[in-house]
Amino acid sequence: MRLIIREDPKAVAYYTANYVRQRINEFKPTRNRPFVLGLPTGSTPVEVYWHLVDFYKRGEVSFRNVITFSMDEYVGLPRSHPESYCSFMHRHLYDHINLRPENIHMLDGNAEDLAAECQRYEEKIKEVGGIELFLGGIGPDGHIAFNEPGSSLESVTRVKTLAYETVLANARFFGGDVNKVPKLALTVGVGTVRAAREVLLIITGAHKAVALAKCIEEGVNHMWTVSVIQLHPSAMVVCDEDATLELHVKTVRYFKSIEQVQEQLIGRQNISLKGSISKLVGYDPDQAYRPIADPSANEKSALDTDSSDVSHQDESDQGSITDSADDDQYSVDQSEDDGESDNVQEMDRNTLSATELTASGSSEANGTRTNGSLVPAAVTGNPF
């Protein structure tokens, strides 16, 4: 398991969105070989989604051959309700990118047979070849999706009764009234998440520090369902400094040192996007190690050497992403053949930080910047 530590939630959001962008581009999805992405709801991933929308608008990523599966949905809440997770995903992501409608998969909390709906969802995931990357957040009690403490680590998509703490936490989305919060939800299982070929968790804030400590430093425990990622062969946690407050100092130093050694001694050119070492080009075992206070300090210099490795084909052989001013929707030229890749600009922006993005003269999808700092959405309002 990899632990990536960044200064604050904004840096975590940018790193995560940029990683997802790179994974999609590296995969080079086609209609016959789509990139299957599992996506979370809740407040944690909102800024990640805004960055992904921004990347799309810049032509740095296409979602035309991406298939998505949302993690959960409330039971009994109309899909049109502003706090349904269907509305959430459309509001923050789906309505602003070129994702094909038939490639969007969400649980139906109003299905007549909820058990059959959950089984259908699992079968649909298998039908498309499984999830390539599952992005997720966690609750303060360490739950993934709505897999509350005590959930089976082998569980699949099912109906779940929400813990009172979860109902209280979600009351803020319902005017602070706990009576308006649905008490049941449909959720992918812990086993569903584990079955993904890669899992990336976002953990930010001091209120989730205990959960991170349980995930990293203690054993696998169904009372802290996040801990199951210790068993996953390709898992990564991206967190901020506040989330590490309950970790031992030596644990934080260890994971930071791994990133620094890879950066300085092994070289980015020898490290895959997932962090594995597959080659040693220009590697000098006698090179002196120079400690870096903050691994992200080298991100700007790495811009000159990293490549998104996005393949380009003749423009006539590919679909194009266009911005239609008439209906404010993004249309896709459907003339491409099924086996062709999307036309994505090749940009060396793999590790560019959010502040550096501003310095380059660009504006973010999630608001404005003042003196190089991102103004929170609460100040700027929803950018869409």
UniProtKB/TrEMBL annotation:
One Gene Ontology term, aspect cellular component: cytosol
Ranges of compositional bias, category Acidic residues: 324-345
This protein's UniProt keywords: Carbohydrate metabolism, Hydrolase, Isomerase
One Pfam family of this chain: Glucosamine_iso
Enzyme Commission number(s) of this protein: 3.5.99.6
Residue ranges of coiled coil: none
GO annotation terms (biological process): carbohydrate metabolic process; glucosamine catabolic process; N-acetylglucosamine catabolic process; N-acetylneuraminate catabolic process
Residue span, Glucosamine/galactosamine-6-phosphate isomerase domain: 8-234
Biased composition (Polar residues): 350-373
GO molecular function, one term: identical protein binding
Catalytic activity: alpha-D-glucosamine 6-phosphate + H2O = beta-D-fructose 6-phosphate + NH4(+)
Disordered as annotated region, ranges: 288-384
PROSITE patterns, per database record: GLC_GALNAC_ISOMERASE
Family: Belongs to the glucosamine/galactosamine-6-phosphate isomerase family.
Role of this protein: Catalyzes the reversible conversion of alpha-D-glucosamine 6-phosphate (GlcN-6P) into beta-D-fructose 6-phosphate (Fru-6P) and ammonium ion, a regulatory reaction step in de novo uridine diphosphate-N-acetyl-alpha-D-glucosamine (UDP-GlcNAc) biosynthesis via hexosamine pathway.
PANTHER family recorded: GLUCOSAMINE-6-PHOSPHATE ISOMERASE (PTHR11280:SF5)
Protein name listed in UniProt: Glucosamine-6-phosphate isomerase
Species, as recorded: Coemansia asiatica
